[in-house]
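Could you join me in thinking about how sequence relates to backbone shape in a protein? We need material for that, and I hope you will provide a protein of your own picking. Once you have written the record down, we can walk along the chain together:

…
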Amino acid sequence: MAGTRIINFTQGNLKKDIVFFSIPLFLGNLFQQLYNTADSLIVGNTLGAEALASVASSGSLIFMMTGFFQGVATGAGVVIGKYIGSGDKDKVEKAIHTDLAFGLFSGVLLTILGVVFTPTILRWMKTPENIMPGSVTYFRIFSMGILFCLMYNITMGIMNATGDSTHPLEYLIISSITNIVLDIFFIKVLHTGVGGAAAATTIGQGLSFLLSMRRLLKSKEIYKVQLRKISFCPPILKEIIKYGLPSGVQNSVIAIANLVVQTNINTFSSTAVAGSGAYSKIEGFAFIPINAFAMALSTCISQNLGAKNYKRAKEGALFGIMLCVLLSETIGVLFYIFAPKAIALFNQDPEVIKFGVKQAHTEALFYCLLALSHSIAGVMRGAGKAIVPMAVMLGAWCVFRVSYITVAISISHTITLVYWAYPITWSLSSIIFIIYMCSSDWLHGLEHKSSRLEKSYEA
């Protein structure tokens, strides 16, 4: 699109640039959440509570399958942003094509794993037998298009890392509209059940990937892609993994912990699963500013530290964190107030509504802590210190969360105790992050790593 503004965080009005860069990310996350929510709204109101539970039961599994590889891919965004900041076009090009090669390899691997092992994993998660067939159908069809999901996130990440957050928004809007239209067509017209919802999502993600890839192939910007150059550059791949592996491990351990939570919720009833699924769709709106600002902060910090603009990096970090926390808590307060009406949109069953509202009233007012943890994690990833959020979330969101649930449920089989696992662990991680950010020299982490990596290039 002519006139698209490519933001360079190393110069100009920093606060304004963070907001302008975040707005397309914010709107993109909003549209993505809207079409994810549309899936559940259409399924829950057309096919009933059991079908809604079938879709909901796959959420944690999907994140477990994709989270590791998407986390590693975030390392590419840091590498690209760093070399843009330092003006090294050759390494920007190598990082982009290595990132795409990594996505293709990962997508094929996940497709095979998802199609083959879905029933085994769902049984391990103690998925209720009455929703098992729908859950298997939904996740298997989703797995067939998981390559599109990964490749869209990678192509979007490439454009975001170079300062272009506008085109990913355009493609996501097109994808969202396509998904909603196909949801209605497949489920209400063709009566394809939950499989139709999965197919609509797959087609929508495929379209967004094709549009993004077309943009990269035709672009005259620094991020132009040439198909013949898509391959692994070992030194760049090593660098991407150094920055991205901690994020991948972090996503994986969070996913495993969430699977434990979901497994415990599955032990109550299908209405509990459906209520939790409806809640998670609304909770997704709290993640909109979190994801937008975490990504903006990673790009801002990596560009400025690559250019050695330490003061700008610190100013950008503090501004982005405060704004992210404020917006997320506003969403949490509104959700707490309007929870009964919000949950009822998905299904009118009183039991489903009761479970969803109970979870909202337990967790929603703590969204500020969720935002604080994720935004500081975004800063640390941009600074090349991805090992820090990995360690914090491994300890707080995995080990402590699983330990808490194991002990709590053994004492009393009460679903509210499961819900409390989230606010407690968000609080713990936020405290640790604040202490680390205030006491460490995170501003020079990227510089120290770069000097070591330069020596490996020379070798």
